[in-house]
Amino acid sequence: MITVCPECGSRNLRVARLRNPRERFAALLGVRPVRCRDCRARFTGPGWKFADVRYAKCPRCFRLDLSTWSLHHYHVPGWKSLLVNLGANPYRCEYCRHNFISLRRRKYRFSFRRSEQRNSTSEVTTPADK
Q1: Which of 8, 37, 47, 125 meets the CB 3.0–4.6 Å disulfide criterion with 32?
Q2: Whole-number Å distance between alpha carbons of 72 and 23
Q3: Which sign, positive or negative, has the C-alpha torsion 45, 47, 53, 55?
Q4: pTM reported for the whole predicted model
């Protein structure tokens, strides 16, 4: 999935709605429209890479960095609890806050520390900048 806006360089993106039959067909092939939440630019890009097909991804925003959630804190429907008993993993996308269950393993583990480090390193000023 495209993770950076080509217009402004922001990582605050969301999957845009499909407008016409051509975009719906392209979505079947893995090309999705994406909209930047900062500059409102709309562009298309691959929804997945062939190398990432074997990993779990968020069904809403297609991100690969996922955390887990506990079955004790949420009401799980019967068929999802059956999947968990068969070996599926409960995952949560911290960007769009979507809980889902997948039989695939995750590629990246979401960490608040990493996202905080990304934000703090972009705001650090050096003495030469003053």
Answers
A1: 47
A2: 40
A3: positive
A4: 0.55
